[in-house]
Amino acid sequence: MRWLERIRKKFQQEEDVETLQFFDAALLKKIIYLEWILLLIALVGHLAVQLIDPIKASDEAPNLVISMIFLLVVFLLSFVKPVRSTYWDRMCFLFLEIVLLTGSAATGLPKFMFPLYMISVAKGCLLLDRRGVVVIFVASLLAQVAYGSFKVYLKDLQPAHLNPYTVAAGVQMLLGSLVNCYAALALMVLIGTLTSKLVLEQKLRMESERLGKEVEKLATELERTRIAREIHDSLGHTLTSMNIQIEVARKFFDRDQSRATEALDVAKQLASQSLTDVRMAVQSIRNPDFRFKDAVHALTAQIQQTEALQVKVHLDTPEISSATGYQLYRIIQECLTNVMKHAKATEARVELRHDGSNLELNVSDNGVGLQKSNTGGGFGIRGMQERVESLHGTVTIDSQPEKGTKLQVIIPL
C-alpha cells in the first residue's frame, strides 16, 4: 500500500534524535532482566499445568508447544537492542513482540502471558517518542482485550449458540475480557507510567549536565571579558597619562631639562599607579578594603596634577557595597580617560546623588563631543555598559558637537 510505504519512508528519515539523545542503556538492561524473569515464569507455568493437570491444559491451551516456541523467539529477540535503528524499525520490532506474545497467549495459557505486554510498553517508553508509546500501548491493550473477548466467545457464547455480533454479546465479551485481564492491564499502565517517569528523570539529569557545562563555559567567557575590561579600564587612564608625560619629556629634553625631569618623575609615578591598578584588577571586585569616595578623590587629584583639566566632584551617596562602589569607580575612571583622550575639554564634572531608591551618576564635560559613530561602539563604552548592566542599571549618553558630552547612569538601590 502506497500510504504505508510513505509512512515507512518518513519514519526511516526521522531518527528521533531526542529519544536517542536521552537513551538510558542501564534502564533498558533492567527491563530486559525483568522480561527474562516473566518469560521464565510463563514457561514454568506452562510446564507445571501440563504435568499437574493435562486435561485442563488441553482445554485451556490448544498447543503449549507452539506457545513455548513463541516464548523462545521473544527470548531471542530480547538480545536485540534496536537503539540505532530507524524509527520505523524500532516500531516494527515492538509490534513483532506484541504479535508473538498474542500468538503465545492464543495457543497457551494467557494468565502467564499478559504481564509480558508491559515489557513492550516499557521498551516503547525508551525507544520511541510520546506518540509511538501511545501506539504501542493501544496495540498491547487491543491485543489483550481482543484475545480476552475471543476466549469469552469460546467459553460462553459459542456453547449457547449466541450471535457474537449483537450489542449485548459485544458488551459481554468486552466486560468479560476486562475482568479476565484487569490485573495485566493495571500492571501495564503502572510499568508504563514508571518507565516514563524514569525516562523523564534521565532527560532532566542529562539536560542539567548539559546546561551545567554551558554555564561553566559561559562563566569562563564572562571571566575573560571581565579581566579584559579590568585591564582596559584600570590601565587605560594611567598609561594614557604616562604616554603624554613621556612625550613632554622628549620635547623638553634639549630645551628645558628641569621640565623634562619633572615630566619623567610624573611618568614614574604613573607607572607605579599602573602596578597598583593591576593589583586592584587581579583582586576580587568585592574587596572589602575598597573605599569608593577615597578612590574617586585620589583619581581626580591625580588627573589635575598631570593634566590641564579641572575636575569638579560632588558625591552625595549612602553606604554602598564594595562591589557597587568598585563598578562605579571604574565607570568614572573610563569616562574621565575618554575626556582626556578625545574631548579636548578644560572642565569635567562628576556628580553622584540618590533619591532613596536609585543612585544617579552624571559625568559631563565641555569638550568637542562625540561623533555619532562612536556613541556606542568603543570597547570602553561597551565596558561601561556591561558594568551598568551587572548592577541592573541603565546608561544614557548625550553628546552634541562642540557642546560636550554627558553620561548618565541610574542604578537601583
Summarize the structure.
This protein has helices at 2-13, 17-21, 25-52, 54-60, 64-77, 87-107, 110-113, 117-127, 130-157, 167-252, 257-282, 292-306, 322-343, 379-390, and strands at 310-315, 347-354, 358-365, 394-399, 405-412. By secondary structure, the chain is α+β, with helices and mostly antiparallel strands. It has two domains: 2-216, no CATH class; 224-412, Heat Shock Protein 90.
Terminal CA distance reads: 71 Å
Tell me roughly what share of residues is in helical segments.
over 70%
Please state the oligomeric state of the protein chains shown: single chain
Question: What is the count of structural domains?
Answer: 2
Number of strands: 5
Class by alpha and beta content: alpha+beta
Describe this structure as you would to a colleague.
It is a single chain. The chain has helices spanning 2-13, 17-21, 25-52, 54-60, 64-77, 87-107, 110-113, 117-127, 130-157, 167-252, 257-282, 292-306, 322-343, 379-390; strands at residues 310-315, 347-354, 358-365, 394-399, 405-412. It has 413 residues and is of the alpha+beta class. It has two domains: 2-216, no CATH class; 224-412, Heat Shock Protein 90, CATH 3.30.565. Strands 1-2-3-5-4 form a five-stranded mixed sheet, with helices on one face. Helix 3 (25-52) runs antiparallel to helix 5, helix 6 runs antiparallel to helix 8 (117-127) and helix 10 packs antiparallel against helix 11. The chain is rod-shaped, with a radius of gyration of 40 Å.
